[in-house]
Amino acid sequence: MAQPKRPDPKAPAEAKPKPEPKKQPEGRVTQSEDVIAGGPRGNAFPSVEELIAEAAGSGDPVMDSVAPPTVARKEHKEVRHGETVKDDWFWLREKSNPEVVKYLEAENAYTAAMTKGLQPFADDLYKELLGRIKQTDLSVPVRRGKWWYYSRTEEGKQYPIQCRKAGNADAMDAGAKEEVLLDQNELAKGLKFLGLGAFSISDDGQQLLYATDTTGFRQFQLFLKDLGTGATTGPLAERVTSVQWAADNKTVFYTTEDATTKRSDTVWRLVAGGKPEKLYVEKDELFRAFLGRTRDKKFEVLAINSTDTWEMRILPSDQPGGQFKPLLPREKGHKYDVDHRDGLFYIRTNKGAKNFRIVTAPVADPSEKNWKEFYPHQADTLVEDADFFNEYAVVHTKKAGLRGFHVLEFRGGVWHTVAFPEEVYAAGGDGNPEFDSRFFRFNYQSPVTPGSVFDYDLGSKTRKLLKQQEVLGGFDATKYECKRLWAVARDGVKVPLSVVYRKGTKLDGTNPLWLYAYGSYGYGSNAGFSSTNLSLLDRGMVYVIAHIRGGNEMGEGWHDDGMLMKKMNTFTDFIDSAKWLVDQKWTSKDRIVIEGGSAGGLLMGAVSNMAPDLFKAVHSAVPFVDVMNTMWDASLPLTVGEYLEWGNPNEKAAYTYMKSYSPYDNLEKKAYPAILVTTSFNDSQVMYWEPAKYVAKLRTLKTDTNPLLFKCKMDPAGHGGASGRYDALKDRAWELAWMFNQVGITK
Q: Which residues are catalytic?
């Protein structure tokens, strides 16, 4: 299934040739000229040292006397649907303009000056967070053929090391020699960022394909490593989005993205020693193409998906010279995916089944007339995924925001369900590549139970705990309590809330509360474990995830009711959840801090506009706040493909509705909560200029004296920030220190 396009990097635990310029829409007129010099400082932005000197002697810990940077306003007009739209900060999208960089650096300097007094607290928090982590650690090995694969970390090193050892079907040979496949620390030497994309081993275990990004812009290069000799060749290709091996161990299929829009649209075949051959180009800009493979390795699968329509094309893996052929014709509104077992395709489909069902179909003719029901549709339960093994099937469902596993033994034809003990939890498959396995491996966790890897014996119905995340520093799960609550939205809909707090916390409305949500793309927020969140709970904060409409916690309809012309439900659900928590004495208005990232940053911007007096402080991470300008520009990454999620602004009704909630377009002259905005200069999923423009405009409108801070990571970094684990933890510690400080927590 295609992943959400603007996933939240702050989410709870459980990450072709350039086309000709697009023609402008009919009637679109654009003007741009410099008209304003840039306020008191013009473009002479101060340094950190100058700002600190300016605040010298101030008794105010947040240095309110320091003036924030101002930025030149340049008139920009566009006519959209007969309406003249003005945007004086449009020019900040000029990434190569030195004045843009100077402005971003000035904002960073201002933020550093304003938070200088917080740095000791942030440093202490970093030590606290790091003190809970087992820095030298080992993942649970996963079998692929005769090898057991795992990753390990070493204290002081930023990145994991990918390894393997020989073994048999039951266990890794502990005495076998370790083979290091990829040491990301070595790859990262001399680099400030390293992202690992594809990591794929050939069927014979002799070759490794891997892809790396060194800028944070999700621009991956593909490399091949011979695991026998250790020799690496490449890059074999640029802008790679997915890869798969064929059964012959010498043919590779991969997809690449458009150089401008970053849409994954082209499929290639590469045979060892040859040149890449272009197999397919997806012309429809609403669709993206990615490669997969059935678990039994019989078929290569090319998934070509849009928001509301999915198409699968297949190719026998032992016939790599052939062409991918559609499993079923592309049909508007039909979403399906596929696996294979014993001569049958298993198709998860939404045809006649809003929350999906699973049918079987013969390989010779998988058309609908030959479908047979395998797992039925249920109105209150989402069929989210399925794993098919030689002797067993495991269907993944979601009901009331909680995942379930339903197991079938093919031989006996009897189903049973895997039960979980807690009221709130997260569970998911965790490394099940072997078709002949009798074990189903899953990860289970909750806000009070660290991530736990189990092997579930599908025949005996017993589970074995292989590893639980070690939380150092004396963590005791019995000191915390987690529960599921239901807020009531203004239209009467009940919104699930996952709530965790330390036992003994006063629940009389006086305690601070941290409220998180996402609510987009049908991507449900999992109530998983976070050792970082212990720093909140141990300081008396309640942590709440609001599972608002726009996700899939309550099924496909939950997504439908929070997208397109119903998107406003996402924002009102969040506001109503916060009000409900206040009414129920979980907190008070001046004690709520809220956080969301990416599309969740859109949520933060919208609710800050709609109910600014309800929240004390806001952290808006890599926020999608300039909705109208982004969705109006078809050349930007993600835009066209997201018409089916947000709406097509070229249609007047959609344009008007989207504009009614777009955070940037709805900023007003009024008081706002304390706001921290963070981003990365090289983010490709939400461009840096969206938060930059948002902050610049808000500075001219806000009537309060609450802090408005903007932190833009100028070094290479991605949508999720820094790539190194220590760097990322330092950034998180600083964010926590700022948020804590807003509700009076200073140590």
A: 598, 683, 719
